[in-house]
């Protein structure tokens, strides 16, 4: 499995504020960019070091070039059914939208799961991923209490299986399918990527996913499911519905992103930090964690997209 090159410049000793984050326990600068026409800035201390200047220019050129790839027209197809279930609620909810560049070949893609605590939310194409040379598959899935937790996870797996079966028709590559999502969507990302049985049902090897990139997802058993069992959101549980239960050394690259530890939801950073540590301890070679200081659970999603795009770039380049 390829080793991830550093995508960001180390900031040294610098006051923590929005615009800085922790990667694998070390403070780094954060890349800011506009969603439509990226203009990359670095918040860092003044330095006369020519190497730093060269690094900044090189990073800007690489990321700008990636975002301007496939600069032609993009199309969107909506409400495509992806489930074979006869359940009426599944027929209503199990639909996806796909946003793709015309005339692309071998383009990377992201299967994107929305958040909403497994009880709400709607599919959408994130603005930050538009016109970036990336195919985006935005997924609706069944929601509690209208279904079981198993149904939510199974829908996520069925959507990813659909991507593997159809992505080449839209100019994508089966070897460049990334899975990501925010909050509940991050939880689903981790569940189907770490517990192999969900995708195996559809004849897909979970480890063929290019990378798992959850944004502030639960890794203990989801609080919505615990609530159904009469448990408090603050009463932790780790069972077969917890990504943490399925730590293993041979999964796809696992890129964890959370918000500020003092602003996140229900200790989400510490929960994910433990997940990161356990993945490292079992010998997983490509697990990273990013903590975005100054961003709460909702706000962390916007800057997290830049880490997602950088991850897509470095892994795509290695294939």
Tell me the number of helical segments per DSSP (H or I, 4 or more residues long): 8
Shape: globular
CATH class of the largest domain: Alpha Beta
| Structure summary, number of beta strands | 12
SSE series = EEEEHEHEEEHEHHEHEHEH
Q: What oligomeric arrangement do these chains adopt?
A: single chain
How does this structure look, described?
The protein has 319 residues and is α/β, with parallel strands linked by helices. The chain has 2 domains: 20-66, no CATH class; 73-318, Rossmann fold (3-Layer(aba) Sandwich). It has 8 helices and 12 strands. The protein has helices at 50-67, 88-93, 149-166, 184-194, 197-200, 223-228, 268-281, 301-318; strands spanning 20-23, 26-29, 31-32, 41-42, 74-81, 95-101, 107-113, 135-139, 172-182, 211-215, 254-259, 287-292. The strands form 2 sheets. The chain has a 10-stranded mixed sheet, sandwiched between helices. The chain has a two-stranded antiparallel ribbon with strand order 3-4. Helix 3 crosses helix 4 (184-194). It is globular, with a radius of gyration of 19 Å. It starts with 19 loop residues before the first strand and ends with a helix. Residues 1-19 and 29-65 have low confidence and may be disordered.
